[in-house]
Write a structure and sequence with these properties.
Largest sheet: none
Distance between the termini: 64 Å
Oligomer: single chain
Helix content: 55-70%
Structural class: mainly alpha
Order of helices and strands: HHHHHH
Radius of gyration: 25 Å
Shape: elongated
Length: 144
Amino acid sequence: MSATYDHPAAYFVRTFLPMYLPAVLFRFHLLTYMVYTAFISIEETFAYSGYSTVPTNFVLGGIARRTENHVLCGGEGNFGPWGLVDWMMGTSVGADVMDDVVAEAEKHDVPERIDGAMQRAKKRGKDVVRSRRARPAKANGTKG
């Protein structure tokens, strides 16, 4: 379980209903619902942990940063933990979702990795074409 620092009515609307209604509407299996609940509990634990570096920094670290910015700005923005709706509505405070994505991509050298993968794919494609052109024709005179 995770501790929430919210008014009970806000907790009911923001956390409990979005967690409970899909289970009721889609009639989740009990095990599926427990995994779903565990995921939400872990997400809230990391969001309110205060740590800026968490095990999966790309998603959960952004949640912790957005939650911290929400508290520091006096509740003027960053209303959702994921930041997607804040980004669409223009209520992001500090770095928004796109800034998190760009920062993580730069940190993990994603553009260089993509370029390297594309170069390797081109080279492999050329090698395959060359090897198919170099194949001899079948013995009966038909093309392969």
